[in-house]
């Protein structure tokens, strides 16, 4: 029996998971989720920016072992869509522009030595590392940019309140340590980027503050119409808060 060329061709499998846990500790998981969600919200109006984390990135077609799985990464000039893995050759050759690794005891050596070499060869423009516990990196937040094929350190700035801040040219954002916790900031507005949970919490707090303000403003003699205007509510919404 003669086999066709298609029958002789062995399908190459690119796994979407290695079966290992997403992160080994609560801090690593929490900051991974925060960074992915905060960046995804920040770039939500751009259809050419893909934000993901803990996803396999395959960079050589036909070689499944040529793979990395950054904790957090951002790719510009590709479609914003859901993926089970990221294959560079299917994305017009676009590799991550920004990568953040959450460093821990088990990943420190790999994050410090192997990954920078691999990411620089791939052409990743910026590589950041963050150690939530402060036990494995000094300083606990480090950034570098690619220059002539090698990573050069990004110098941190100390704000008037003593906060350490690194500017990412790729993202147009600042990475800051607030009481040891990593947070992204928009340097143009000074606004802190929030996760989905933080965004909802802020919304509820703002709504509660407005609700609490209405009785006090009524006691000061303002009409319901004046209160609605002051709190950027409709008259119906202001009345509803009093129910």
Automatic annotation (TrEMBL):
One Pfam entry name: Uma2
InterPro entries recorded: Nuclease_put_TT1808, Restrct_endonuc-II-like, Uma2
UniProt superkingdom: Bacteria
Domain called Putative restriction endonuclease: residue spans: 37-136
Name of the protein in its database record: Putative restriction endonuclease domain-containing protein
Organism, as annotated: Nostoc commune NIES-4072
Lineage: Bacteria, Bacillati, Cyanobacteriota, Cyanophyceae, Nostocales
